[in-house]
């Protein structure tokens, strides 16, 4: 339980034994009174956090094997953490804050996120938007667009910060559209022709054929390098690898 209410007695004890003057004691108690409204919220936070980490929190009996993000971030260290549910946002935000502390010490961790949603996880959402030389990410998810709550800005930021994009079979049409846009477009020449008389546009090339002419139109159109419907129809053994730095696209099948 939060010891907030016990602090008033502690202040009185320190005033009585001369540690604090009466004025200092009254000033401290005035501040404690203003904080009373937050006591319930503080207790609610720690109770909720305790419920989220109940299965992973150390009992304290085995001190030699205790660890945390900062300790595990030392060279060669590996920490696997099962959040159990995407709704455990307090735990996720706490982990991200520890990773921030780790990187502030100059460590450069590799963070692998497997099917985590940044929806309602404010710290994770903000962390993924930052492009840092101190952090490398691998994000694995069935639907990255849903992972970011269908937020275009967040999706575009994550994709824009990535160096590689690996696309495999999935069944989310909305994500296919966004991934096709992320891989990019190319300009293609489209040729159309027909038979007819004169009066063709200046952009048309006319070729005399016997007594008439052929109307040949050449136009430039933009198209997806990989169309959304192609991504939708991918087999389990197909892979598209897009190098976002060199803007190169690779296709392969997995045996």
Note down, in words, how this protein is organized.
The longest helix is centred in the middle third of the chain and has 16 residues, at about 90-105. Residues about 200-205 have low confidence and may be disordered. This protein has about 260 residues and is an alpha+beta fold. It starts with 5 loop residues before the first helix and ends with a strand. It has helices spanning about 5-15, 20-35, 40-50, 70, 90-105, 120-130, 145, 150-160, 175-185, 230, and strands at about 110-115, 135-140, 165, 185-195, 205-210, 210-225, 240-245, 250-255. It has a 3-stranded antiparallel beta sheet with strand order 3-7-8, with no helix packed on it. A 3-stranded antiparallel beta sheet has the order 4-6-5. The protein has 10 helices and 8 strands.
Oligomer: single chain
The whole-number mean of residue pLDDT values reads 80
- H/E order of the elements? HHHHHEHEHHEHEEEHEE
Helical segment count: 10
Helix content: 25-40%
Q: What amount of the residues lies in strands?
A: 15-25%
Poorly predicted ranges: 199-206
Tally of strands:
8
Question: Can you list the strand order of the major beta sheet?
Answer: 3-7-8
Largest sheet properties: 3 strands, antiparallel
Structural category is: alpha+beta
Rg over C-alpha atoms, rounded to the nearest angstrom: 30 Å
The global form is elongated
From the N-terminal CA to the C-terminal CA, the straight-line distance is 58 Å
